[in-house]
Amino acid sequence: MMTKGSPQMKGTPHFKEEQCAPALNLEMRKILDLQAPIMSLQSVLEDLLVATSDGLLHLIHWEGMTNGRKAINLCTVPFSVDLQSSRAGSFLGFADVHIKDMEYCATLDGFAVVFNDGKVGFITPVSSRFTAEQLHGVWPQDVVDGTCVAVNNKYRLMAFGCASGSVQVYTIDNTTGAMLLSHKLELTAKQYPDIWNKTGAVKLVRWSPDNSVVVVTWEYGGLSLWSVFGAQLICTLGGDFAYRSDGTKKDPLKINSMSWGAEGYHLWVISGFGSQNTENESDSKSIVKQPGILLFQFIKSALTVNPCMSNQEQVLLQGEDRLYLNCGEASQSQNPRSSSAHSDHKTHREKSPFADGSLESQSLSTLLGHRHWHVVQISSTYLESNWPIRFSAIDKLGQNIAVVGKFGFAHYSLLTKKWKLFGNITQEQNMIVTGGLAWWNDFIVLACYNISDRQEELRVYLRTSNLDNAFAHVTKTQAETLLLSVFRDMVIVFRADCSICLYSIERKSDGPNTAGIQVLQEVSMSRYIPHPFLVVSVTLTSVSTENGITLKMPQQARDAESIMLNLAGQLIMMQRDRSGPQIREKDSNPNQRKLLPFCPPVVLAQSVENVWTTCRANKQKRHLLEALWLSCGGAGMKVWLPLFPRDHRKPHSFLSQRIMLPFHINIYPLAVLFEDALVLGAVNDTLLYDSLYSRNSAREQLEVLFPFCVVERTSQIYLHHILRQLLVRNLGEQALLLAQSCAALPYFPHVLELMLHEVLEEEATSREPIPDPLLPTVAKFITEFPLFLQTVVHCARKTEYALWNYLFAAVGNPKDLFEECLMAQDLDTAASYLIILQNMEVPAVSRQHATLLFNTALEQGKWDLCRHMIRFLKAIGSGESETPPSTPTAQEPSSSGGGFEFFRNRSISLSQSAESVPASKFSLQKTLSMPSGPSGKRWSKDSDCAENMYIDMMLWRHARRLLEEVRLKDLGCFAAQLGFELISWLCRERTRAARVDNFVLALKRLHKDFLWPLPITPAASVSSPFRNGKYRTVGEQLLKSQSTDPFLNLEIDAGVSNVQRSQSWLSNIGPAHQEIDTASSHGPQMQDAFLSPLSNKGDECSIGSATDLTESSSMVDGDWTMVDENFSTLSLTQSELEHISMELASKGPHKSQVQLRYLLHIFMEAGCLDWCIVIGLILRESSIINQILVIIQSSEVDGEMLQNIKTGLHAVDRWASTDCPGYKPFLNIIKPHLQKLSEITEEQVQPEAFQPMTVGKTPEQTSPRAEENRSSSGHGSIPQGEVGGSSLVSRKEEDTTRAEEEEPFQDGTYDCSVS
């Protein structure tokens, strides 16, 4: 056969004819009859090798001549296990053997064969002559079901497909010539439980043109893609054997024949469904009537063809016309989900650093936070004459990309989003880039062949100048460059004559726009490298077996210490030879200094696909930055880790300075983030594409045919694997150093947890006893970190109960760990331990520990935890076996602005959640009609059970303590948060705990707790004319506006218990019991706002009415500002202002006022009149005192209490005279009332007759009404009774004035009442 090209060609060479396909002519030259069916054809250099079914091998010259050579009979070729001459080979020996499939391997100089009986072998000519006597075969003895074969020339691998469905990959042992099994490509039951053994025999195996992946298909269909050393990248079987939503089964794609397209971007497939009337465009969106030829598109990692990218921390994938990056802002990112089901994007190859544009340029979260790629479309002008893209590279910061097509190159800036092409197309078409390209600062370094000068060159172009040879720096080289890489300011080049050349690169001093390149050193490698094509990558690194401590000069640790060469999967290291005399260079010009020679090479590792190192240095993370990372395909990853002696002690002579640690990861690594201890990659998912939407038949068949694949970004932590490997090898000290250097990483706690979990699962579930278990070592290791308690409990909660005994045998008794948590004040973790104790111990033990925790939580005001504990204790008591839900480890943020919605969504049940706060507990003794929520019934049902009694006892004890210590603020929080029946309890304790023993002490304590200033100047306000409502509004308003924020902060500083979480006791009113963070300071005030309407309805005020009010009023929308019309016209004189400011100075924060009034109301209800007096004193409102006296007169009060009040007030009087004269004026005002009190004291009354009076019935005109908060218990707030005389103002007027007084808070939360 012979082809003739079309003669037409005009203009520039290589340019025009690219635009159209060249015309081809085929004509027959000769027919040869070999007299048997031809099984396989192979081109071997100048000859054609033909295998026929009669067991003969024919060697035919391309001209059609046999050259008189006889056909070789396979039976005469000796086969043995290896090539060592001592063993004579046995012959195949039976007559009907013939070759079923064969492929020639140029780099091994021989051909891999599969015989018809399933045996496989490798036949090689012993000398250069190709005759039967000169051939010798080797075979592995264990393969008997071979079906097909494919050869990878770059890695010298032979992949034999087998009838079992697996692919066995063999290599030839250099010394003995035997066939060694390198690895297997097989589906595992773990990944594909349904079909791993139902695929049938392997049908076809094909290596990609760049030798970096192999595609495998099976008898019953399906397509899979594997990396060189067996990492599975894609398998369509996940989606292929699935069912569609209409219940029909999806048949997998059966493939009869397939071939890779240029550069491995396409896979052309002839499907097994029949191939009549095929019309096909070479475009992925081909509309095929009857499926015949299908076209799959792939994207591959830049590392496959341009391995110099491995010192980057970005992932760059290249397609035929676009690039996928993992950097760039989230806003620019797009999802590379194929535009149609059949443009089927898959990672053709995944090998490339994926990383954080060097941490300055973007944060980790942008890199890891989402799964989409940033897609860059390659300039169509460049593509149309230079398709396909051969190389691509991205710079360190991830801001510029350069691509190389057939000729020339182009680059793109992610910042300006513009491509830069050669201005002169002749220059572009005159260069062919050969060895890849790399970025050095702002320069692009590349090796190319200059067509017109027929000269190999090394060129440097500046990114910022125009793309033109005039601005390039050109250096001529002797031989073709195959690989190129940049390390700091050095360029390393590997050439076709098997030599390595080092150049220095630097900016020229004569102008900022040029860089100069000078040769530093040349090293010939021809002794070690059989064929230059076998070198996969070459890099310069600062890694050496000495780790810098033992070097004589410290800066040498960061120099280019060694060359790493990947020779067909073997990683070879050549270090500088420091054994000779060390010259200290004092020369002014560093380029003049003689570089040290290299030692002979050492093999570091086998089956290596990729190598990552970095040239950055970081004293804190030396382990990670000075390590060498290797990706080994199916075997996972390896790291060559430096070992450092502690505190620069002398290293042990017996301890090697580096160690190779293998570990498995679940993703295919494309980049390593060194400091962040992360591996980045891409993952390919095959989804079931359901063609429910497109119902026309042609399309439907296509979508059924094509697997629908999505390529997503992914990342994985690897630190726990390394720590574990170090611990296995008794290198605990190194593990500790490494872990401490990474302890600041956000996922470090997760790392410890993963390590503990993995070791536990393996050891606790192993069938045989483990001679040297690792769990105790791991447990001991984790105790070195403050997160120990947390790690253990999280791990336990995530493993099954059966393994707990094994775990706690290693880490310690859960009871002891629980106590440690309590001592460390880590209550949330303690709560998690409680759940473990509940499962492992008898109920009595868990109750005892729960009680401890409950008391501590009460003490610290952790209300959420308290509620959980109450529920937990009840569950133990009522014998409910269900595990109570865990306490959250992090505080749940409150539902922001849960204000008005709360009322709208949950009309009347005010309990916070059905199980946690029983509503019926809080009826305000006939003051409010309190609808009982669903929880109310449940509570009453089992309220007689001992458990509730037990819990109540604890709550009462706590309340008693708080009262005895005069911690009223804490008492309020406690009652509101836990729905404690404060009023009924106070009624019972009126004469015991609820007595005020020391009025002065109580007064001082309240001032401190509520941040209420002691009065300084005589507070004339009481008698002043400003008491009327109108002016008062101004004061209130000023007070609110200025005090909210500052006081809030004050409160936090003062460290008042619980302020952090609920700034008012009523904070917990949002839906579900969630805590309010100080950050959302508006939470509580909002609640003030919508609670206030309740207060103005007196007796019949039910919660229901509040709902109606809220919904109808505009305050829900928050547009109430100031209702008082007169206010705008109100002008204040100087003296009035002074007066107001003085009054403000003598008041505490608005919220404290609200809280005090609320407490006043509670104590009134409970009849604790002595406390009411104390609060009246603090608020300095005579009307309160007055009202109490009214109550005392109108009802029978315990004489003891009267006596107590009397003595208490005298004590206060004495104290005011000596220590706090500010109180005197107020005491003088209430003197007359005290006289009355003394008179009453004379009479004795029976305590039983006491009926608390409803305060709501005595509204007062004068005092401003502070908005009432309401606690979770749902007390409606009630206007404070401040009676000036006992005349009752009509309820209506009262309400209106109040509404006008309300004024929104500054911080966007509203306090309002509804008139």
Automatic annotation (TrEMBL):
Coarse class of the protein's main subcellular location: membrane
Keyword Membrane annotated: yes
Subcellular location(s) of the protein: Membrane
Lineage top rank: taxon: Eukaryota
Basic and acidic residues compositional bias, start-end: 1290-1299
Annotated stretches, region: Disordered: 330-357, 878-897, 1247-1315
Pfam family, any one: Beta-prop_RIC1_2nd
Keywords: Membrane
Gene3D superfamilies: YVTN repeat-like/Quinoprotein amine dehydrogenase (2.130.10.10)
RIC1 C-terminal alpha solenoid region domain residues: 720-878
Keyword Membrane belongs to the record: yes
Biased composition, class Polar residues, residue ranges: 330-341, 880-895
Protein name: Protein RIC1 homolog
Origin species: Odocoileus virginianus
